[in-house]
Automatic annotation (TrEMBL):
InterPro entries: NrtA/CpmA_ABC-bd_dom, TAT_signal, TAT_signal_bac_arc. Belongs to the CmpA/NrtA family. One of its GO terms (cellular component) is endomembrane system. It comes from Kosakonia cowanii JCM 10956 = DSM 18146. This is Nitrate/bicarbonate ABC transporter substrate-binding protein. It is found in: Endomembrane system. Its main location: membrane.
Length: 420
């Protein structure tokens, strides 16, 4: 950063950030003036420069655009997006403190809290970064064998020796593992007994399928669309077909970091929340975002690979095209961004289902420890004009017809015929 940049950040860091200040320093909240007066005393961010990790995926967009569009400067911070090679790297750098926060898998954060994603650590979810926008890709070799969906895949697998087919996901306790397992199980395929299961970092999925290391994978965009464009695979299912408007990546960090940097955490949440709203405001903003994140510093792929599905324009590689009603969303009047307790609890139910958790946790207590809804509300107030739900639970119907509303997680976790 240049001396001029330092001076700019120094000036901007004095801008008053009042959200939640009554709780943190007794300052008066003045509606409409959150970003127009100077930061002072206990309201000032404890850290001015924040390293925020991300993986090269379309849903890193809110973190990247918060920095590129300088939403961070409004809240007295500078976000430095840090490109990481794998989710394991994101985890390790979060725990070591090399990263202040990260674009991270929802299930990884919960897994760390319970010691099944790595060393046990108290964690924090500041906000949800996106809904939808992942997919399950199958190889063209399976297409040649007559596979187009879960039912036809089951027939091919049943007619083959056990372990013939390998499927990849991106992290054992993460979102892509859960979408893959849920989809396979819904088709009557045991994701552990009937197929082999491996972990591959998102940017390496396409090349590994190309050289024959796996027959299918679940990953975020743009790598599913890239598989179609490269002529090696097709989209068998989108994640929003599994669960419309499902939670996906979150802005995550450790609980210790939030305790030491409460004002900075609130400022970071506000900046990323404002970026999320900006992205969703228009197709023009989405196109600008696609062009920005396609650059070498971020995803490093052609704009066309990102833009179509970001705008909801889908093709499956089998001849079907459609406008997806549940394409990747970043804001949706705050419904995306709010850290719903029921969203976090769902991942715990699946970690229990698949044997990552050996016993049932106190589902609600864990979610309340991790999801920082009060801090989110303070950030939303600072940004202004953002609806905050009155309930911390929401209801959804998944691909198998099961309704998830967070009301009885133990019964839900035990309700599946295929499990470990």
């Amino acid at each position: 950063m240049t001396q001029d940049d330092d001076n700019t950040v120094s000036k901007l860091s004095r801008r008053r950030f009042l959200a939640g200040s009554a709780a943190l320093g007794g300052s008066l909240l003045i509606p409409g003036l959150m970003n127009s007066v100077w930061a002072a005393g206990s309201d000032a961010p404890e850290k001015k420069t924040l390293r925020v990790g991300f993986i090269p995926l379309t849903d890193c967009a809110p973190v990247v655009m918060a920095a590129v569009k300088k939403f961070d400067e409004k809240y007295g911070i500078t976000i430095i997006p840090s490109k990481e090679s794998s989710w394991a790297s994101v985890r390790d750098k979060l725990l070591s403190g090399e990263l202040d926060a990260a674009h991270v898998l929802y299930g990884m954060v919960y897994g760390l809290q319970l010691g099944v994603s790595g060393p046990q650590r108290e964690m924090a979810v500041l906000m949800t970064l996106n809904n939808n926008g992942q997919a399950i890709t199958l190889s063209n070799q399976l297409k040649a064998a007559g596979v187009t969906d879960g039912a036809s895949l089951k027939k091919v697998i049943a007619a083959s020796p056990q372990g013939t087919y390998t499927f990849a996901q991106t992290f054992p306790s993460g979102t892509h593992a859960m979408w893959l397992y849920y989809w396979l199980a819904n088709a009557g395929i045991d994701p552990f007994a009937d197929v082999r299961n491996v972990v591959v970092p998102p940017p390496q999925m396409v090349v590994n399928m190309k050289i024959g290391n796996m027959s299918g994978f679940c990953v975020g965009e743009p790598w599913n669309q890239r598989a179609i464009l490269d002529g090696i695979g097709f989209t068998a299912a989108t994640s929003q077909q599994i669960w419309p408007d499902h939670p996906e990546k979150v802005l995550g960090t450790t609980s210790a970091w939030v305790s030491a940097n409460g004002n900075a955490a609130r400022a970071l949440t506000a900046a990323v929340l404002e970026a999320s709203r900006w992205i969703d405001a228009s197709d023009e903003n989405r196109r600008e975002t696609a062009k920005t994140i396609a650059a070498r510093a971020y995803i490093n792929t052609a704009v066309e690979t990102i833009e179509g599905r970001m705008l909801g324009h889908y093709e499956d590689g089998l001849g079907k095209t459609w406008q997806d009603a549940h394409a990747m969303r970043f804001f949706n009047d705050g419904a995306v961004s709010y850290p719903w307790l029921s969203d976090g609890i769902w991942f715990l139910t699946q970690q229990k289902r698949w044997g990552l958790l050996k016993s049932a946790p106190d589902y609600l207590a864990v979610a309340r420890q991790i999801n920082r809804s009060e801090l989110y509300k303070q950030a939303a107030t600072a940004v202004g004009g953002i609806s905050v739900p009155t309930s911390q639970m929401r209801s959804s119907t998944l691909i198998d017809g099961k309704v998830w509303d967070g009301s009885d997680p133990a019964a839900y976790a035990n309700s599946f015929a295929i499990h470990r």
